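Posting for a labmate who doesn't have an account.
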Amino acid sequence: MKILALNCGSSSVKYQVYEMPAETTLAEGQVERIGFPDAVLTHSAAGREPLTLVGEVRDHRRAIEMVIDVLLDAQHGVLRRKEEIAGVGHRVVHGGEAFACSTLINEAVLQAVRSFVRFAPLHNPHNLRGIEAAQALLPGVPQVAVFDTAFHRHMPPYAYIYALPYSLYEQWGIRRYGFHGTSHRYVSREAARLLGRPLNELRLITCHLGNGCSVAAVQQGVSVDTSMGFTPLEGLVMGTRSGDLDPALVPYIMQQMGLSDLQVDALLNTQSGLLGVSGLSSDMRDIEEAAAAGHARAQLALDIFCYRLKKYIGAYAAAMGGLDALVFTAGIGEKSAIVRAKSCAGLEFLGISIDPERNRTRAAGEISRPGSPVQVFVIPTDEELLIARDTYELVAATPPEQ
């Protein structure tokens, strides 16, 4: 069964085609700069020459139409007919309180996703455009929504309720939702596989560290706490996001700088984090290089980033009453030996001890010292594969229409 996994952003569509249940990647690629005259489609398929196309792509529907066309292409594609696509899985950022797992898309689901645009105005509209385009271009093909928030839906109330008037939660849905759930779910299952133990016996901390960063406490396979909150701004220091701060700073900054609510929101989301502290870049690679060359503010940005991460690791180990494994994933988590080492330094009292040679040389796998009470792993995330798995399971369990 061939499954198409789609991840639609504001100006991009990432895609992969899998043969399921073998989980074989048949093709993958992305369309970037949607809405611009110089949009780029990059495509690769097993046993085929890679393809790059440059030209105007007006909208997400045209982008997905191009994806389908290249998948059907005699020279570069992997399909003879588009009817070979048995299901389409879509990443949807926000599922509110309505969805605790992935689900087949119908009109009621679409209405719910539209209603959550108020929570994720920068993400859900683009996810919706991808769904609507795929429905139009692949009529009758089952579509599945895989929600970033769903993995955190089972957090206990004491972890997700803010200490605000309770009516704000009841009337406006103001609570911790958490994000990156698809990634946290994937790597927690991979950690259990590497440990050779049932997931429901484990206490894990998973660290998704990219341009956006979040940590999750995963106990018995369930996310019991996570660092991102009502929005992806809360929690760790990120590329351009501030992470945790004193909420009284928001009106103070607005008053002192004469900023509007939209301007202060942009300051916290796009001008802060590594970029704001260093004054150089939001890219950890640039920060590490500058810090090594003696740039004081780059070093400060690196130190703040790792210190904040270390505090969350310690807090979540305490929340779960111990820890079996710690996982690093996503761009920084998978590639930065410096961040991993600095964030774990001093955590030996928790049983965390990184092997310097393993940490320096391994792109994936265990990086803790042999015999360490807590095993530390680098696990490359694969959100598209998890989207494909959920889609396959739902499509395979759905009886065909008569």
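Reply:
Got it, the structure tokens are right above this. The chain has a mean pLDDT of 92.
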